[in-house]
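Our platform keeps sequence and structure together, in a single record for each protein. Nothing more is needed to write down the fold, since each code stands for a local backbone conformation. An entry from our holdings is shown next, in its original layout:
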Amino acid sequence: MSFSPDEVERYARHLVLADIGGPGQQRLKAATVVIVGAGGVGGPAALYLAAAGVGTIRLVDGDTVALSNLQRQILFDSADVGRPKVEVAADRLAGLNPHARIEPLARALTPANATEIIAGSTVVVDGTDDFAVRHAVNAACIAQGVPLVSGALGRWSGQIGVFAGAPCYRCLVPETPPDAETCAQVGVVGALAGVIGAMAALETIKLITGAGEPLTGRLLLYDGLSATSRTVTVTADPACPVCGSPPPSGEVARSEA
């Protein structure tokens, strides 16, 4: 896979960078990244992945731009209020890097369409704030063998993890927490979205190029108030209904409603 003169100059800092170079940049160009949620996490991630030279970016979000988004969702500006998020994002990303193919899907991801949406992807980035959607994305990724980069944030803290097989996201969050809070309820400092979104892009680039050590099976927890972070290991649940071992012969697996 060759690069045009424009691409050679555009990606010059990658091409001379150890662990990426020409082969890594070619892998980025050949990759398809699905970003579920074009908001606080997905927006910054999309900007950095388009700039990095990811060949195809599939944006999935059924929402329109709201005025309250603009405090942290830097893909949009005031004139975009009321427009579909993926439509605005596609225009912005195409302007940033015309070599990237942007596939906007103005619909919500559900268990019924998750497999179709994720099909053919290299990596999936999930930046949604809905646990049902997160579980649907995780199940589809496990079924298709696609690595999942999951980012979340609230108030002053955020987290980023990579799931590729066991343990999966369902091992970390088996069920929707009864006291789950949203940013609309408790607030979030806007700049934190950029921190976690950039981390999601970085982990995606590492997965695609093979550089460094991705956060596979680990969770990085970032505290913006204290400017500290720590990384914890996620333990695989043998009984996980998504990635766990199948029951012994003769036993029936427990089903969920």
User: Anything to note?
Assistant: Residues 190-209 form the longest helix (20 residues). The chain has ten helices and eight strands. Confidence is low (pLDDT under 50) at residues 247-257. The first strand starts at residue 32 and ends at 36.
